[in-house]
Write a structure and sequence with these properties.
The complex is a heterodimer of chains A (306) and B (546). By secondary structure, chain A is mainly α. Chain A has a domain at 93-270 and 284-300: Orthogonal Bundle (MetI-like fold). Chain A is built from 15 helices and no strands. Chain A has helices at 2-29, 34-37, 44-54, 60-72, 87-122, 127-141, 144-158, 170-200, 203-210, 215-227, 229-244, 246-252, 258-267, 271-299, 301-304. In chain A, helix 5 packs antiparallel against helix 6, helix 5 (87-122) packs antiparallel against helix 11 and helix 5 crosses helix 14 (271-299). Chain A is flat and about 85 Å long. Chain B has 546 residues and is α+β, with helices and mostly antiparallel strands. Chain B has 17 helices and 17 strands. In chain B, the strands form three sheets. In chain B, strands 1, 8, 9, 10, 11, 12, 13, 14, 15, 16 and 17 form an eleven-stranded mixed beta sheet that branches. Chain B has a four-stranded antiparallel beta sheet with strand order 4-5-7-6, covered by helices on one side. In chain B, helix 16 (471-482) packs antiparallel against helix 17. Chain B is globular. Residues 1-41 of chain B have low confidence and may be disordered. At the A-B interface, helix 2, helix 3, helix 5, helix 6 and helix 7 of A face helix 1, helix 2, helix 6, helix 7 and helix 14 of B.
Chain lengths: 306, 546
């Protein structure tokens, strides 16, 4: 077991290193940050001076070694766009907002998808089932930015019930969370529906009915509990997707999370912040995967010896 | 059995009504006029400006001129820009004067001005301190190259200071004014708190003082009740709220969350139909021109490729007369703009020639037949001339790709084939900076500068832009930088501009004023020049309705 964990840990470190190489290279392929940051007036002397100041005049290999050495100590350098802020400090400042939004979006998607999924399964072949399918279709096909703007227009501009953008109380979270979670509603709903259909036809359900339990109890207590395993496994994936997929939603609603941060950083070619955000997210993903692998190995001994 | 249990929920007969109900709700909500929320409040305490965003930082020496909007309320400059006339007027400096050779500029500073938060009086040492930021190695301010030509900042006494320049300088009033980027900050604060204090809560002398900043999100200011000039803004607080999405800014304005918003022209009409009002700058601020890559006519320049079609003057004229400017202005820019005769020159610019206007139609006027004939004379029959049009967008300037599309249509009409490529601005800039853009033409919006600055930036071969360069421009520009007599400067600047006009150096299109959209319940009057750094400025002059 320990050898397995050690091997997986080393693999994770390797993955993280590869990710650092990829993000470092890709950021530089997009162009010279000075072409965004320097005014049109800047002549060759300004380009040279600023390049020297930021170490951009050094060979790429040297720049990478400097970046990696500092990153290993948790230092991703200072932001080039938000002067006076460290890249990691900005990520740490914005991460709670993204986690909050992703958590709320997950909650909303479950709260909507679960009953609709159950309803669609229980009422298979009816109008409600068809309606649920339409919800799934719309959820998977409506672009997030469009949905966000439409929701904003209806609930914030016309009805005035909710704020258009920004972060504050729970009212600020509703529209972005629905926008972010809507795609997942469709996925979870379909998963719940198919799992429920499997369970509804199983022998133990027939037994509960023969025993005279109410249909409410049969469906919500016995069937849903058994059908929830598959969607629950999916939640881990959804949580990750919601966190990283918040870029569009955060931009539309000016939600001060890491998604908005990375959009601004990419626009400004702020390599330091882009690198910090990507490495942090990659780290979270890799670490979560490592934990899941260890958990699987703990639960299923066959995995350790593969 | 399952159906029985769910019968109270199912109501299958009602189900078909669901879409109709949804449709009714949507129709109702979208059909009604939105309320303007807090804008209806009897007295607005905090004015919220929804901005497209800028490089937000308290370190003014690292921020380009257009992003100086964030300093305008609280960090002042030595000179002001009159909102109606555009002239330079006294501000923190009461008087200013150049030496006869324009190598020394003397400023007499105002007495009795106090920095915010009790950092003491404004004196000459604050000017020296503020200028020192422009000399730091990391400085990226727009006018950093200018400020680096200052040889010495000499303190005569607490209220008199002299800038000694390395070469004659006539653009000092511009650089030291609200249109420039030398913001005056407190030396006393620096001595006490250093850079940390600047980042946390910089002290200025404006009629608003800095309260707080959330990087990338918002900046808040608070009114100063005893401003030295007696400026008294109508609103107790001012907040710039950054929203990248245009639709979000419009929604903020219409819902009453913001009172002022910068909106692209295409969304302005939506705001107008909902009762909003546009406030334009007193002067045109930005121009749009189509630049032609590869015009490197200095002898021996390896980047010059003689096979680039527009190295022939007839092709350049053909590409100009093929464009229907009036139609383009009306369709893409809703008619909001005025003609540019020579790129970068307005009637107020040094060297402006009124004859351009009268000759423009004859030389540049829309004439597809003439375009075809010119192309034929240059050796390009129908379908023989092919090139790329590069398009890119910047926040708040979304028309680039539309203009590129329109150009493609106009050129097709005269037998020219084009391919539109949408690129990132940085990529385009990298290409023209490295002189590898011979393949392409590109429309771009650039903001106003004094003529000398514009010539240096755009046409002088030692700059990094390389729009159009040759021996004549280099020689004349060098003479201009040494000239101090107004009439001599006029002559030199005009000869460069005339040359660009006669040579069809590019495809000049339009000048645009700066426009912001505001809720008339919050703003009834706002006069601002547009020429000041940050474009939307003079927040103390915003007046609410009575």
């Amino acid at each position: 077991m320990q050898r397995y964990i050690a091997r997986r840990f080393l693999q994770s470190l390797l993955a993280l290193w590869v990710m650092s190489l990829v993000v470092f290279s890709l950021a530089r392929v997009t162009g010279n940050p000075l072409d965004v940051m320097l005014p049109l007036e800047a002549g060759p002397e300004e380009y040279e001076r600023i390049s020297r100041h930021w170490g951009l005049d050094k060979p790429l290999a040297t720049q990478y070694v400097v970046f990696l050495t500092k990153a290993l100590q948790g230092d991703f350098g200072n932001s080039w766009k938000w002067h006076g802020y460290s890249a990691m400090g900005l990520v740490a400042q914005r991460l709670p907002a993204t986690l909050q939004l992703a958590g709320f979006a997950l909650l909303i998607s479950v709260a909507i998808a679960l009953p609709i999924g159950v309803l669609a399964a229980v009422m298979k072949g009816t109008v409600w089932d068809s309606a649920a399918k339409i919800v799934a279709l719309l959820g998977q096909s409506l672009p997030g930015f469009w949905l966000g703007i439409v929701l904003m227009w209806i609930f914030a501009v016309h009805l005035g019930w909710l704020p258009t953008s920004g972060r504050g109380g729970i009212q600020y979270m509703i529209l972005p969370a629905i926008t972010l979670g809507w795609f997942q509603v469709a996925a979870v709903m379909r998963l719940v529906r198919s799992s429920m259909l499997d369970v509804l036809d199983s022998e133990f359900v027939k037994l509960t009915r023969i025993k005279g339990l109410s249909e409410w109890k049969v469906v919500w207590k016995h069937c849903l509990r058994n059908a929830a395993i598959a969607p629950l496994t999916f939640f881990a994936i959804i949580a990750g997707v919601l966190m990283t997929g918040s870029v569009v939603t955060e931009s539309v609603f000016s939600w001060p999370g890491t998604g908005l941060l990375v959009v601004d950083a990419v626009r400004a070619r702020d390599f330091q912040v882009v690198q910090a955000v990507v490495i942090v997210f990659a780290g979270i993903f890799i670490f979560t995967n490592l934990l899941v692998d260890i958990l699987y190995a703990y639960l299923d001994p066959r995995i350790r010896y593969r | 059995m399952r159906r029985d249990a769910w019968s109270r929920f199912s109501s299958a007969r009602l189900a078909p009504l669901a879409p109709a109900l949804l449709l009714m709700t949507l129709t109702f909500t979208l059909g009604t006029t939105p309320t303007t929320g807090s804008a209806q409040d009897a007295k607005i305490q905090k004015l919220v400006f929804a901005s497209a965003g800028f490089e937000d930082s308290n370190r003014f020496w690292m921020v380009a001129r257009p992003d100086h909007l964030q300093y305008d309320p609280f960090l002042e400059t030595l000179l002001d820009v009159d909102p109606k006339t555009g002239e330079y007027t006294p501000r923190l400096a009461e008087k200013w004067q150049a030496s006869s050779d324009f190598k020394e500029w003397t400023f007499t500073l105002r007495k009795g001005v106090q920095f915010h938060y009790g950092y003491g009086p404004f004196t000459a040492k604050d000017v020296v301190h503020s200028h020192a930021f422009m000399m730091r190695p990391e400085t990226t301010a727009t006018l950093a190259p200018f400020w680096r030509t200052v040889e010495e900042v000499k303190v005569v006494n607490d209220y008199q200071i002299v800038f000694r320049m390395k070469r004659p300088s006539t653009t000092m009033p511009y650089a030291a004014s609200r249109a420039g980027d030398l913001r005056i900050v407190s030396k006393a604060q620096w001595d006490k708190e250093g850079l940390e204090g600047m980042d946390k809560r910089p002290a200025g002398t404006g009629s608003y003082r800095y309260l707080s900043r959330q990087p990338g999100l918002s900046i808040t200011f608070e009114r100063v009740d005893n401003h030295w000039r007696g400026e008294r803004p109508a609103f107790k607080e001012l907040e710039f709220r950054l929203a990248r999405e245009e639709s979000t800014r419009l929604a903020m304005l219409l819902s009453g969350e913001a009172h002022v918003a910068d909106l692209p022209r295409e969304l302005q009409k939506d705001a107008l139909t909902k009762g909003m009002k546009i406030f334009s700058s007193s002067f045109p601020v930005d121009w749009m021109t189509v630049y032609l890559g590869g015009q490197y006519y200095l002898s021996g320049d390896p980047a010059f490729k003689p096979d680039v079609p527009w190295t022939k003057k007839k092709v350049r004229q053909a590409l100009n007369v093929a464009v229907n400017r009036k139609e383009l202005l009306n369709t893409v820019f809703a008619g909001k703009g005025t003609m540019t005769y020579v790129t970068g020159w307005t009637a107020q610019s040094e060297g402006y020639n009124p004859e351009w206007q009268s000759r423009f139609d004859q030389l540049y006027g829309y004439d597809p037949a003439k375009a075809k004939a010119l192309l034929k004379e240059a050796g390009y029959g129908p379908g023989q001339l092919k090139f790329k049009i590069l398009a890119f967008t910047e926040p708040g300037e979304s028309e680039g790709p539309q203009v590129a599309e329109a150009l493609g249509i106009y050129y097709k009409d005269v037998g020219v084939e084009t391919e539109i490529e949408v690129l990132d601005w940085a990529k385009v800039r990298d290409m023209f900076r490295k002189k590898t853009i011979q393949c392409c033409i590109w429309p771009n919006i650039i903001s106003w500068r004094p003529a000398e600055e514009w010539i240096r930036t755009s046409y002088y071969s030692k700059s990094a832009t390389h729009h159009y360069e040759n021996e004549f421009i280099d020689k004349t520009y060098n003479a201009l930088t040494q000239a101090v007599k107004p009439e001599e400067r006029q002559r030199l600047a005009r000869s460069i501009a005339d040359h660009l006009f006669e040579e069809f150096a590019d495809i000049p299109l339009f000048w645009f004023a700066n426009e912001v959209v505001a809720n008339p319940r919050a703003v009834s009057e706002w006069v601002y020049p547009g020429l000041a750094a940050g474009r939307s400025t003079h927040f103390d002059r915003i007046r609410p309705p009575k």
